[in-house]
Amino acid sequence: MINRQNRYRILPLVILVLVAEITSAQSTGSGSQIATYIIAAVALILVVFAILSISDNLMQVEAKKLGSDTTKNNFSIIPKFSELLGGPTPAYAADQPVHKLTKGHDINLVGSANKEINTEIKAKTFAVKPTNFRGLSPIPRMLVAVGDEVKAGQPLFEDKKDNRVKYVSPVSGEVAEIRRGAKRSITDVIVLGDRDLSYVTHDVPAIETATREQLVELILNSGAWTLLNERPYDVLPSPDVIPANIFISTFDTSPLAPDLGFIAKGNGAAIQKGVDVLSKLTSGDVHISLDASHAVAPPVEFTGIEGAKLHWFKGKHPAGNVGVQIHHIAPISGTNKVWTLTVESLITLGELFLSGKFKADRIIALTGSEFENPTYVKTHQGANIADLIAGNLKEGKSRIIAGDVLSGKQVSSDDFLNHTDNQITAIPEGDDYELFGWLFPVIPRPSVSKTYPNFLFKNHEFEPNTNTHGERRAFVMTGQYESIMPMDIHVQQLMKAIMANDYERMEGLGITELSEEDVALCEFACTSKQPLQKILREGLEMMREQG
């Protein structure tokens, strides 16, 4: 959606035309009287513009104070360009509001996963990683030991600060190893999975008559509480906090992202049940974001959801980021806390209330140019990466990434998937030096720069590597971030405020609305090669520590 300030960028053009008219009038000898009239008209336009601008800003401020949705409804005297020139709305969303985001950038890469599930690939070991949960003690209280037999959904460890939250095994089997890191911290609790899983079964109360406390108790005891994410700061929520709203994005626009509609196919009942549960956990609403960027409508598993507010989004990456969607639906402000879930987490939560079992099933997309056969595999949460990619990598040196190329993490083949991972990306390792690569743009590479004629070949799929083509440079003001960031946030000023430890400025510039994935595209486009995601996380941790 276009920044409100962009509506007034036409003003300089108007003034330029009027100045041209003045010059023309003077050059043709029409006299000073015409010039005086035109100067008076310019002054009048400036006065009217100032009045409209102030009125528009005041209307927006008052609308937000009253809790109105200023992105869904245009509380403005002047219509937005996105309303006038936003492009056609797909027929399936024609009678519903659509958030049309004009900023962003899609990165088309080679290696998208084929729409099929390879059933021959099976993971043997699975891990729960305490490091995935911010705020958890580095050495949690272990409830199992090496050699113990566990069921799927059985607690493995708990937080010493709050033992109500259970961290459970995704599969049944034997506890094979407890890996430790620096200062004896626990990094992985590894379970050797059974061929046929057995589950811990819970008594499920009727959602219609159950109290919020009863629902929370079941979610805590089953281990499903770890599926929830709280913003700001992306932490595990406290059971004592009631979120202002809950947000779920049903599509992902990041490079080579898995098709969440394909993953959700056949899980409509679990999705609906999950939404029914979530609607009783919040004081506000459950917001579901849908993709309006394609000719084909999203699957009925998403469009048929009841008891939630559906929002349509149309635009380039990062339109699929839940943080961007929150910004345009109901921005985080003040002390408000909201929850987010992934589609896979929603299915697991719904399945818990359907069967009484914590089923951490996952469909993982193997993507990237280094896979012989990019495909989907069905496994469980925390699967061993080596088991999933065995025999599928091309020869040569590859980088394995848990997640996408923008916001994912580099991992070794002996590592395990993180708690919410649904993608493994493999691309060539860029450890070679390209002489004067910046000077001779010969090899096609993904870029937002017009130096490369990418804008002429919008459907071209690039084969990237990890070469950054340069080192960190002076952090100069370029305006690059604002040109691709579909949020009313000045990213560069925010980053400088973080680096200066300016807490008040960080908060005023909107740090609480952001997560690493929201600035990943800015980091990709950054001329200064700054690690924006790392800087942002440092700032978020500083703010969280300050309370």
What can you tell me about this protein's structure?
This protein is of the alpha/beta class. Among the domains are: 4-85; 122-193, OB fold (Dihydrolipoamide Acetyltransferase, E2P), CATH 2.40.50.100; 212-355, Rossmann fold (3-Layer(aba) Sandwich); 468-547, no CATH class. The chain has helices at 11-27, 32-65, 81-85, 212-222, 260-264, 268-278, 300-303, 322-329, 343-355, 385-389, 480-484, 491-499, 503-508, 516-525, 532-546, and strands at 98-100, 117-118, 125-128, 141-142, 149-150, 155-158, 166-168, 173-180, 186-193, 229-231, 246-249, 286-291, 309-314, 338-341, 361-367, 375-380, 398-402, 409-411, 423-428. It is globular.
List the main descriptive attributes of the protein structure presented here:
547 residues; 6-stranded mixed sheet; 16% strand; disordered N terminus; OB fold (Dihydrolipoamide Acetyltransferase, E2P); single chain; alpha/beta; 19 strands; 29% helix
CATH topology of one domain: Rossmann fold
Name the beta content range.
15-25%
Major beta sheet summary? 6 strands, mixed
Can you tell me the overall shape? Answer: globular
Number of helices: 15
Mean pLDDT: 88
- The first-to-last residue Cα distance is 32 Å
Number of strands: 19
- Give the proportion of residues in helices: 25-40%
Low-confidence stretches: 1-9
Question: What is the CA-atom radius of gyration, in angstroms?
Answer: 26 Å
CATH architecture of one domain: 3-Layer(aba) Sandwich
> By helix and strand content, what is the structural category?
alpha/beta
Oligomer: single chain
Reading off the top of the CATH hierarchy, the class of one domain is best stated as: Alpha Beta
